[in-house]
Amino acid sequence: MARRGKKLIVAAAALLLGLSRAAAEDAQVNTIQDVFRHLRTCWKPPPPNKARPLDITVVVSFNRAGNILGHPRITYESAEASDNDRLQYRIAVMEALQRCTPVPFTDAMAGAAAGRPFAIQFRNRKTSPDKTSPPTQERRA
């Protein structure tokens, strides 16, 4: 009976390893849309008690191996954001990039993406503005 239990454990472990390998292969980034989807899976905005919701855009480039090339650059932040809000969101963006890199590019996508800038938008505000409020001014970083 103990031998049968060990076989079941070994079979379960092999199945789990096979599934994680298959999931990793499925996670290959092969299109531009896949790049955006992949990076957004790592996005964790600051909790509301630390910063008010805002939208932020970062421009980042990658090398063929999927590592960040150069320095990411914040190009847009919501105009109504306070200095604390901006700081908290900038930290969250950089943490998301750290969690998601290196990007698992396919060979074809690695060649296409290498050195090209990607503008990644992280939206955390309501996208439909209130009809009674005046339009907000965008603030460029």
Describe this structure in words.
The chain has helices at 2-26, 32-41, 83-100, 107-113; strands at residues 56-62, 68-77, 117-122, 139-140. The chain is of the alpha+beta class and 141 residues long. It has two domains: 1-27; 31-127 and 135-140, Fusion Protein Consisting Of Minor Coat Protein, Glycine Rich Linker, Tola, And A His Tag, Chain: A, Domain 2. It has a four-stranded antiparallel beta sheet with strand order 3-1-2-4, with helices on one face. The longest helix has 25 residues, at 2-26. The radius of gyration is 20 Å and the shape is elongated. The model is unreliable at 5-26 and 127-136 (pLDDT under 50).
> Stretches where pLDDT falls below 50 for ≥5 residues?
5-26, 127-136
Globular, elongated, flat, extended or rod-shaped: what is the shape?
A: elongated
Strand order of the largest sheet: 3-1-2-4
Mean pLDDT metric: 80
CATH fold group of the largest domain: Fusion Protein Consisting Of Minor Coat Protein, Glycine Rich Linker, Tola, And A His Tag, Chain: A, Domain 2
Number of discrete helical segments: 4
Main CATH class of the largest domain: Alpha Beta
- Give the helix/strand class: alpha+beta
Q: What amount of the residues lies in strands?
A: 15-25%
Query: Taking Cα atoms only, what radius of gyration do you get, to the nearest Å?
Result: 20 Å
Q: Report how far apart the termini are.
A: 66 Å
- Overall CATH architecture of the largest domain: 2-Layer Sandwich
Largest sheet data = 4 strands, antiparallel
